Amino acid sequence: MSDFLPITLPSKCIPYSGIRPEDILIRPYNGGDEIILAQINPVNLERNFLAVLKNVVRGIDPSQLTTGDRLYIIMWEYINSYSEKIRIKHICSHCLQEVEFEVNLKTDLQIAKLPDNYLELQTFTLPVSKETVQCRCLNLQDEVECEKMSNNGKDVYMYRFARSIMGIDDPFAHMERMKKWEAKDIARIRKFHDIDVFHGPTSEAKSVCPNCREEEEIIVPFRFEFLYPTGEALGSCFRA
Fold first, then answer.
1. Whether residues 187 and 208 fall in one domain
2. What pLDDT score does 129 carry?
3. Are residues 175 and 216 in the same domain?
4. Which of 123, 192, 190 is nearest to 158 (CA)?
5. pLDDT higher for 215 or 127?
6. Which of 21, 59, 100, 223 could lock 13 by a disulfide, CB 3.0 to 4.6 Å apart?
7. How confident is the model at residue 221 (pLDDT cuts 50, 70, 90)?
8. CA atoms within 13 A on the CB side of 99
9. What is the largest CA-CA distance in the chain?
10. Both 104 and 220 in a single domain?
C-alpha cells in the first residue's frame, strides 16, 4: 500500500480556516480508486472524483478544496500514479502540420499560487450597479451541487457564481436577480474567479515542433484522460 506523502497545494491552505499546509497528505491511486475512476462520466464526474479524494487525501475535508487545488491534485495523481509525461496532438502554427508534442507535467507547466496577502473573502464594488459584493473561491462542494443541477436539466452558469457570493441565503433567488445585472457586473465576478484568485496549474506549455523545430506554445487540455487514462493516453504512460 502506498504511503501518504506531503503535498504543497497552490492555495497554500490560505482559504481553509484552521488547516495547516503541513497537515495535508496524499497518496497515489490504488486499485480500489481505479474502480471508482473507471466509472466516471460527464454525469457523475464531480461526485465520483470527490469519493476518490476522500480515499487519497488526508488533513482536510476534500469537499472544501478549491477548484484550483483540485486541478493540481488531478495533475499530481497523474504524475505519481501513471506518468509525468503526456502526448498532445496539435497543429503547429509555423509549419501547419499536425504533430504530436510530449509534455512533461512536472517541468513544463507553471503552477500559480495564491499570494500570501490573499484574504479568504474578497470584497469589491461592481462597476455598473456600484453594489458591494463579497466573494470566496469556488470549491468541490459547489461543483457537486452544480453537477446535480445540470443533471436535472437546469442551467448552472449563473448558479455557480451565485454560490460564491457571501451574505445571501438563497443562491437560486440570487441567481435570478443576477440575470438582470449588466454584463460588465457579471464580468467583474468572472474576473474574480478567472484572474484575481486563479491558482493551480496553468494550461500553457512550450515545446519544439518535431517537424520544423520551431518553438510552439500549446494548450494542455485537462480531459478525462487526466483522471483515468485509456487508449492512446494509457499507451503513452508506458513509453520509454
1. no
2. 94
3. no
4. 190
5. 127
6. 21
7. confident
8. 21
9. 58
10. yes
Q: The domain containing residue 173 runs over which residues? A: 119-196
Identity (one letter) of the amino acid at 154?
K
Grid cell of 117 as nine digits: 496577502
Strands (E), 20-172: 25-26, 57-58, 85-91, 98-104, 111-112, 122-125, 132-135
Tell whether 76 and 168 lie within a shared domain.
no
Claim to verify: residue 98 and residue 206 sit in the same structural domain: yes
Residue 15 sits in the same domain as residue 84: yes
Cell numbers describing residue 148:
446535480
**Residue 229 sits in the same domain as residue 189:** no
Q: What is the pLDDT of residues 42-101, one digit of tens each?
A: 899 999 999 999 999 999 999 999 999 999 999 999 999 999 988 888 888 888 888 888
Confidence at residue 232, expressed as pLDDT on a 0 to 100 scale: 81
> 10 Å Cβ neighbour count for 45?
15
- Give 127 or 100, the one with higher predicted confidence: 127
Q: How many domains is the chain partitioned into structurally?
A: 2
Question: Domain check: are 88 and 14 in the same one?
Answer: yes
Residue 21: name the closest of 10, 31, 35 by CA.
Answer: 10
